[in-house]
Amino acid sequence: MGSMVPPATTARAILWKRPSVLPGFGLAMGYTLLYLSLIVLIPLSATFFKSATLGWEAFWATVTAPRVLASLRLSFGASLIGASINAVFGLLVAWVLVRYRFPGRRILDALVDLPFALPTAVAGIALTAVYASNGWIGSLLVPLGINVAFTPLGVVLALTFIGLPFVVRTVQPVLEDLEPELEEAAATLGANRWQTFARVILPALWPALLTGFTLAFARAVGEYGSVIFIAGNMPMVSEIAPLLIIIKLEQYDYAGATSVAVVMLLISFLLLLLINLLQWWSSRRMARG
Amino acid sequence: MVEQPPDGTRLTMTSAASALALPTPVSARRGATAEPTLVRWGLIALAVAFLGLFLVVPLAAVFTEALRKGLGTYFAALTEADAVTAIQLTLLVAAIAVPANLVFGVAAAWAIAKFDFRGKSVLITLIDLPFAVSPVISGLVYVLLFGAQGWLGPWLQAHDIKIIFAVPGIVLATIFVTFPFVARELIPLMQAQGTEEEEAARVLGASGWQMFWRVTLPNIKWGLLYGVILCNARAMGEFGAVSVVSGHVRGLTNTTPLHVEILYNEYNFAAAFAVASLLASLALLTLLLKSLVEWKTRRELGRAAALSSEQPS
Fold it and tell me: How far is the C-alpha of A115 from the C-alpha of B162, rounded, in Å?
């Protein structure tokens, strides 16, 4: 390198930022990185360093203890069921909101975001009140032998509630942008309405549906507030992993709490990576279409 | 992102196009691409039943339970000393956390949306990170950092600074969980708006701050408001993260959602739901404001499209 290349070109090759006439990049970028590091990156990495001081064997013994495994199984299993319910009904709700006109549609559309806006503790006590044996819905279900409150079923219910907006809000815009020509072409070629839906519309919705499902799942796995009131919190049965972290903290078992947290963090980061890949995949598909 | 043509016509062109491509009303759809009436109403009924069961019924339960013992008990629960201090603390925490994340959101969006640099997508992912972390872990990270057994614990104790089980910890945990709201609302908006208007302001001699206050801020005000509304709702309602760092000292480190939990665990259901109804009203207000802002931005987009179609460039 060096003398043959004009200095300006070398500078541009080394430069990590393209020059611009707009001011304030240094200030904005510097503040962004400082704030991000202080609030998020340093505290998060402190957690990993803490778990590293435990040693592998202590870490492994903690996270494979039966009570921890049971709580992780419940957290991930119930989240999976909740996200699946949301995938089906979220698609239905998005479809109805985009395609049909009926009285109250706008209010319903605005209400879909309620689980984002309602504090989780409020959602938790409200769901418990409704589904307890003397509640509006619980009093109808209990005679049928279905106990929702204070069972793993209650965990699924709460996790379905808090994940509800994700699938609706990811599928809705894609459905709105879907070109009617595609469906017309399918109909012209002799497809009935169900065939058009299954072979033309659904394939176009797949990336959005998967993204919404993964977002709902990721949110549900870490959820705490709405679950603890309705779950009953029995060890090995209806105790979720985030609650176990709090229990360990209250017992001053910082090492144990950190170990469970690290397992959950690693899985969350994997999910985040998956969401990014899905979005990259869907934007590529959109660009091609 | 979509590639931008160099001539800067992208914004007006897309908004004009979207105005033209408004979804066809259902009544105008041909029979071949519409469902039979029975199926249509069946699907509507199913969706309404699902949302009713999951959203409307719990919401109605909050207000019914709150008023079960009459208005006297209701207002007594809201004006009781511990409830008032809890509400004051919630307002204080939101008054610090929301502006902090607002300033960060604008700075991050300015750097990310208006400039090209390496590692941009990594930075965006890192900003989104707090959304992927369980609220309980968001609290835990600060306990590990500032708690009595944490990295900085001994130093803080020696200097008599209390962060965990005190207000600073609650503020920090709230900032963490609401970290991405404003930034992730502004980044796509400012990316779509491009840099032409700011460049024009600079060419016409505006200083950096003049350009920001007179060009950038008016352009992003609705997106900014949208982010602030969502950020505020989460800041006032956060439970898990705050629960870990608060220590639940009644009248001192109790936020409104934590106060609801304490009352509920004491079987004081009427009071718990009364305070909860306050938070539920905040949620409804949030949804209302959010819909208003969405409606307003859609109308402005429509007006911009109408303008650009009147005067084709």
Answer: 34
Phi and psi torsions of B260, nearest 5°: -60, -45
**Which token pair is B197?**
């208007």
* CA dihedral for B164, B168, B173, B176, sign (positive or negative): negative
Q: Please tell me if residue B94 touches chain A, with a CB cutoff of 8 Å.
A: no
DSSP secondary structure letters along A190-251: T--HHHHIIIIIHHHHHHHHHHHHHHHHHHHHH--HHHHHHH---TTTS--HHHHHHHHHHT
Q: Is the pLDDT of residue B250 over 50?
A: yes
Place A181 in a pLDDT band, splitting at 50, 70 and 90: confident
- Which single residue is written with the structure tokens 């519409």? B34
Mutate which: A79, A91, A118, vs B, most B CBs within 10 A:
A118
The interface predicted TM-score of the complex, written ipTM, equals 0.88
pLDDT digits (tens, 9 = 90+) for B112-123: 999 999 999 899
User: Quick check: A164 and A115 in contact, CB under 8 A?
Assistant: yes
CB contact under 8 A, A93 and B50: yes
Q: What percent of chain A has pLDDT over 90?
A: 58
Q: Residue B207 CB: number of other CB atoms within 10 A? A: 11
Interface of B with A in 130-189 (CB under 8 A): 130, 132-137, 140-145, 147, 149-151, 172, 175-176, 179
Q: What's the rounded Cα separation, in Å, for the pair A232 and A131?
A: 13
State whether B47 and A101 contact (CB < 8 Å). Answer: no
How many CB contacts within 8 angstroms connect chain A with chain B? 299
Q: What is the pLDDT of residues B206-237, one digit of tens each?
A: 999 999 999 999 999 999 999 999 999 999 99
A267–chain B Cβ distance below 8 A for any pair: no
Exposure class string for B86-103: b at 16+ Cβ within 10 A, else e: bbebbeebbebbbebbbe
> How far apart, in whole angstroms, are the C-alpha atoms of residue B285 and residue B302?
26
Q: With an 8 Å Cβ cutoff, are B129 and A121 in contact? A: no
**Contact map slice: A 98-117 vs B, CB within 8 A:** 98-102, 104, 106, 108, 110-117
Instruction: State residue B31's pLDDT score.
Output: 61
Q: What element of type H or E holds B297?
A: helix B269-310
Are the Cβ atoms of A17 and B118 closer than 8 angstroms? Answer: yes
- pTM for the full predicted model: 0.87
